[in-house]
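hiii so um. not sure if this is the right channel but i have a protein structure encoded as tokens and i wanna go backwards to a sequence. like what aa goes where. can anyone help
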């Protein structure tokens, strides 16, 4: 029995040690391709230590610029890049599709159907749709209250109407994807969205260097049979500025879809430890 206990103790120590030392490896999006109903409407930005800048729309460049992370975002792929131009077709989308965690992930720009409802080309304040939900969250998450809006000469409704009329929803429909990574242990997927560290002017409000208003563009995703929207109201400084305008890509917004199941090797480790405990219980019963 003493020998058996020594064996069991050693097995448990090995199992626990294994779980403690399994590296948190990071997977990335592979086989990235561009598609959608407006498959040519995208731009690719590479980067150096200071700036992002446009490069050729090649598959090699698309894959290359997605290699960053939250600590060091690099270039990005802008979907629906013509969203701020006259004549933009708000009924079409541009997608980025690849493989991560053994599954297909599709990231997409948004259309009027996404914002306003299927078949709707515009909206009004107060309706139950993504446009109203996101806009209200953008204000509340940045502590933009009614008294503060009054000081700026707005109510929440008039600011919404102004944003809508000036093409604000189109402007926030063209996500700039800077990286797509997955923690192999937890299954957590992290997506970087390059945006403005201070997005106040984009919402029609004055900037305040001490209290930047933060709001990411929205990305639609499909992964593991689930489709939903991702956005954030919290940015970190990217350390980069777009070369031609000196403003864009200054903020990194990280968004996270629901986690996948744990990586198989971790599950095997957990089962191994569970098996050791089960074996120990059997030995105890046999010795009684």
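sure thing!! here u go:
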């Amino acid at each position: 029995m003493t020998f058996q206990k020594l064996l069991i103790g050693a097995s448990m120590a090995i199992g626990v040690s294994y779980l403690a030392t399994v590296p948190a490896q990071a997977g990335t999006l592979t086989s990235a391709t561009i598609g959608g109903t407006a498959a040519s409407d995208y731009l690719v930005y590479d980067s150096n230590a200071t700036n992002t800048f446009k490069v050729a729309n090649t598959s090699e460049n698309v894959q290359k610029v997605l290699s960053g992370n939250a600590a060091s975002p690099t270039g990005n792929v802008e979907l629906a890049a013509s969203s701020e131009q006259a004549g933009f077709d708000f009924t079409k989308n541009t997608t980025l599709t690849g493989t991560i965690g053994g599954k297909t992930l599709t990231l997409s720009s948004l259309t009027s159907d996404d914002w306003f409802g299927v078949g709707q080309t515009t909206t009004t304040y107060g309706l139950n749709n993504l446009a109203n939900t996101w806009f209200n969250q953008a204000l509340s998450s940045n502590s933009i209250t009614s008294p503060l809006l009054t000081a700026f000469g707005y109510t929440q409704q008039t600011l919404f109407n102004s944003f809508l009329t000036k093409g604000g929803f189109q402007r926030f429909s063209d996500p700039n994807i800077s990286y797509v990574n997955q923690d192999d242990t937890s299954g957590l997927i992290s997506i970087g969205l390059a945006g403005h560290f201070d997005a106040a002017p984009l919402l029609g409000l004055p900037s305040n260097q001490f209290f930047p208003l933060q709001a990411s563009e929205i990305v639609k995703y499909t992964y593991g049979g689930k489709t939903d929207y991702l956005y954030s109201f919290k940015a970190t400084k990217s350390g980069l500025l777009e070369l031609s305008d000196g403003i864009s890509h200054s903020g990194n917004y990280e968004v996270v879809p629901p986690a996948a199941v744990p990586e198989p090797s971790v599950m095997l480790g957990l089962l191994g430890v569970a098996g050791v405990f089960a074996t120990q219980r059997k030995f105890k019963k046999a010795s009684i």
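oh and The mean pLDDT is 87.
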